[in-house]
Structures are given as C-alpha cells and as structure tokens.
Specification:
223 residues; 68% helix; 6 helices; two-stranded antiparallel ribbon
C-alpha cells in the first residue's frame, strides 16, 4: 500500500513537472529570436537568445518528470521502460547543461563544435529513449490495458514522425521540414508522458492499480 501511494505521488509530480517544463520551453521558443519553424527548439537555449534561463529551467523540469515517471511505473515487469526513462532523464540533463552554438548546427550539412555534437547527441538520445519506453510499455504483458492503449497511440504517432526527423537530418538538413517535424515529435512525446503520468496517478487513486501477472498467467489488479 505504501509503495502504491509513493508511485501515485511520483506520477502526480511527474505530470506537474512535465507540464511546467513544457510551458517554460514553449515560452522560450515562442518569445525567443529564433527564425521561426526553421530553427531548432534548442536554439532557445543559446546564451544570446534572452530566454536561455527559462529554456534550461524547462529542460531540467522535463528531466525531473522523466525520473518521477520512471519511479511511478509499476514493477517488476516495466523495469526496462523505467530504465529507458532514466536514460532519457540523464540525456535531457546533459542536453540542457551543454549549450549548442548559434544555429545549433548538426552534421552532415553544417560545421559543428564539440558542444554542438554533445548537445545534439544528448537531445536525440533523450527523445529516442522515451519513444523506446513507449514501445516497451506497449508490448509488455504486465502493463494494464490503459497503459498499453496510451503507449499504442503515442507510438503510432511518434514512430512515423521520428522517421521523418531522421530522414530530414540525413538528407535535407536545417529546414522547415526538420524544424516542424522536430516540434511535432516533442509534442507527441510530452503528450504521452502527461497522459501516462496522469493515468497512473488517477488509476492508483481509485484503488484500481495497474495489473500484475497472477500465478495462472492472467492479469489481476493491484489494490
């Protein structure tokens, strides 16, 4: 019972931190001086943007939410998903701590610095870890139907957009296609995190917790 309460509280705080982080990053991106949809989201965090502080606060808040969500996932069958969220949190902190240069250039079309590569690699790793966590939840025999449904919607939206982002990075480079697809992917990832943390908090509050496998192989609810 105490563990269920702790997971419910972690899920609730994960939702709050994620909402606050997304709001702060959105303000930094919208109010910043970047060149519209052609810019990367990370450009709001460069020193000259004027909104670097809000951007970093938002990024670190998102990292905290990923750690809290990892702790809110019911063990033991979702440890892999929790581990991926932990990796995503560490990569998110690194992304926020290491600032890219102006324009956040990325290979293969632009000359980059070490900081650009570290920042870009951490950002990509963080997003990829969360998308992989969706897939783990989706295909987990332990996750209950609600968690799998949320993960199914998230993965169905995230995977094709992630493919567009990857193709644009390799074949097109800095462009409106890449800028817009990056924003769409981040919105999908954030929506999945909010939906999952909110679901865990509310479902645990009702006493009908996430299911765990019974000895006969069926799923039963934790209460």
């Amino acid at each position: 019972m105490a563990e269920d309460t702790a997971r419910r509280i972690a899920a609730a705080f994960a939702a709050v931190c994620l909402a606050a982080g997304v709001a702060a990053v959105t303000v930094a991106v919208v109010a910043g001086p970047g060149p519209g949809p052609v810019a990367y989201v990370s450009e709001a965090g460069i020193t000259d943007s004027g909104y670097a502080g809000a951007y970093r606060i938002g990024i670190f808040s998102v990292a905290a939410s990923l750690l809290l969500l990892a702790g809110a996932l019911p063990p033991p069958g979702l440890r892999a998903a929790a581990g991926l969220l932990g990796v995503g949190a560490v990569a998110t902190v690194l992304s926020g701590a290491v600032t890219c240069s102006e324009g956040c250039p990325l290979p293969p079309f632009e000359a980059t610095t070490v900081a650009d590569l570290v920042h870009g690699g951490a950002s990509i790793a963080a997003t990829a870890a969360v998308v992989l966590a969706m897939l783990v939840v989706l295909f987990s025999p332990v996750a209950d139907q609600g968690l799998r449904r949320i993960a199914a919607v998230g993965a169905a939206l995230a995977l094709p957009v992630a493919a567009v982002v990857a193709a644009a990075l390799l074949l097109v480079g800095r462009s409106a296609l890449l800028g817009v697809s990056e924003r769409v992917l981040l919105v999908v990832v954030a929506a999945w995190g909010l939906a999952t943390s909110g679901y865990l908090a509310v479902r645990s509050l009702t006493g009908d917790g996430p299911s765990v496998p019974a000895r006969d192989g069926s799923n039963v609810s934790r209460r």
